[in-house]
Amino acid sequence: MKERKTELEYAFPKTVPVMAGYLVLGAAYGILMADSGFGPVWSVAISIVVYAGSLQYLGVSLLATAVNPLYGFLMSFMLNARHLFYGISMLDKYRPVKRFKPYLIFGLTDETFSVLCAEEPPAEMDRDKVYFWVSFLDQCYWVLGTLLGAVLGSFLTFNTAGMDFALTALFVVIFVGQWEDRQGHPSALLGLTATAMCLLLFGQDNFIIPAMAVILLVLFAAYQRTRTGKGEMENGNIRN
Amino acid sequence: MGTLGIEIGIVAAMVAATVLSRFLPFWVFRGGRKTPPFVDFLGKTLPYATIGLLVIYCLKAPILSVKAQIAGGGNGGAAAWGLPELIAVAAVALLHKWKKNSLLSIGAGTVLYMVLVQVVFS
């Protein structure tokens, strides 16, 4: 008889793609921080208590220019507003969770969300533990990457240009995986087109918030149609 | 406030903003409070739209570069037309559709992209 897998053994392979992205991006963060005069103590501590990739990159310049913390808070919340989406998407999944819940919510980064939103652990496993291990392993990679970058950054000799494409590849892989589910097509296409149009209109520093607003408005319109014309749409399946 | 005080204040602001953005949905819809039907609907549709958003977010530099090429006459060469990203994204998508192995798709795609930007289109 095959020995039963532990939750850690089940969770680890799910996090390997994130490991590749986080070690590289975490190391790049450590290098950037060191370059601005903040050593491993700063960068590692921030990777533990903030743990938000793109915000930490922004934080390098916030710290270097010593901005007013209130302004820093507003900028940070703007950049982080997409996490509200992740939370709403995970409400049902995390509702029955008994243990580690505050940590699971704290650790809901882009990548952890993208792994867990599609994750259905086998019935015989302790779901709370699977979610915990995925979340915790991901943060370990991020912190470890940060430490490596902060300490060893100056000794890197091979050309790492293009390595951060691992993160793009991760999202493309998840997109292709979700595409298997036909009823997600309209929403997936909405995400692509609304975001691309906002990027072209508003430029790379200001497109995320408008893109989210457009996505929410279109989904709200689609939702209204389900209520007026019953049966046109079930389980989020938008039919025209 | 000294420099160290400001720096600690900035880190605290980053922590507060992150905690707020991650915990707010769970606080608003906590416990027995039933989530409104629209929020349920969002839960079923948003994950797809969000991954679409993140794909574009990752590709923002090449997309804007292509836009600049179209606006400026297009003499920037293959890399400015986003060819490395186009090839690598297509390779990742096809490889993943074929083999369905995340690690393989991501690893091979990243190595391909590094070769494209460092050697082929350098």
Could you tell me the strand content of chain A as a percent range? under 5%
Give the fraction of residues assigned to helices of chain B: over 70%
Radius of gyration of chain A: 20 Å
Please tell me what the overall shape of chain B is: extended
Q: Most extensive chain contact?
A: A-B, 95 and 72 residues
Q: Main beta sheet of chain A, described? A: none
Average pLDDT value of chain B?
A: 89
Structural class of chain B: mainly alpha
Please compute the radius of gyration of chain B using only Cα atoms: 21 Å
How much of the sequence of chain B is in beta strands?
under 5%
Q: What is the makeup of the main sheet of chain B?
A: none
Shape of chain A: globular
Oligomeric form: heterodimer
Distance between the termini of chain B: 47 Å
Helix and strand composition category of chain A:
mainly alpha
Unreliable residue runs of chain B: none
> How many helices of chain A does DSSP assign?
11
Helix fraction of chain A, binned, reads over 70%
Count of domains of chain A: 2
The low-confidence runs of chain A, each spanning 5 or more residues with pLDDT under 50, are: 231-240
